[in-house]
Amino acid sequence: MHTGTAVFDLLLPGDSRSLKEKRSYVRPIIAALKKFEVAVAEVGALDLHGRTEIGVAVVAADHAHVTEILDRCERLVANRPEVEVISVKRRWYGDDD
């Protein structure tokens, strides 16, 4: 069993001045990521209106499949025109961890 995680640090548009406006950007991204059958949630910068961190976790039988799913998630987020990706942090966990 192999597990991988990714945390996307995102800059939201300047017009997201309230938490309600922030959610209008975050919810569609989370919904889109769920199509990859991953666990996904907003995990950081919860009180900041112009930033968010979205975490993704995936479990698979082999390391290559975990990497493939995380790559797809990263491409999806990077191709969202309404956000700017500041950073992506990935971690992998294997049978030995």
Keywords:
97 residues; alpha+beta; Alpha-Beta Plaits; 4-stranded antiparallel sheet; 2 helices; 4 strands
Give a topology summary:
Layout (H helix, E strand, L loop, with lengths): L1 E10 L7 H15 L5 E6 L6 E10 L2 H16 L5 E10 L4
Antiparallel strand pairs: 1-3, 1-4, 2-3
Short description:
The protein has helices at residues 19-33, 63-78; strands at residues 2-11, 39-44, 51-60, 84-93. It is α+β, with helices and mostly antiparallel strands and 97 residues long.
Please tell me about this protein's structure:
It is a single chain. This protein has helices at residues 19-33, 63-78, and strands spanning 2-11, 39-44, 51-60, 84-93. It has 2 helices and 4 strands; from the N terminus they run βαββαβ. A hairpin with a 6-residue loop joins strand 2 and strand 3 (51-60). It is elongated, with a radius of gyration of 14 Å. 20% of the residues are buried. The protein has 97 residues and is an alpha+beta fold. It has one domain: 2-Layer Sandwich (Alpha-Beta Plaits), CATH 3.30.70.1120. Strands 2-3-1-4 form a 4-stranded antiparallel sheet, with helices on one face. Helices cover 32% and strands 37% of the residues.
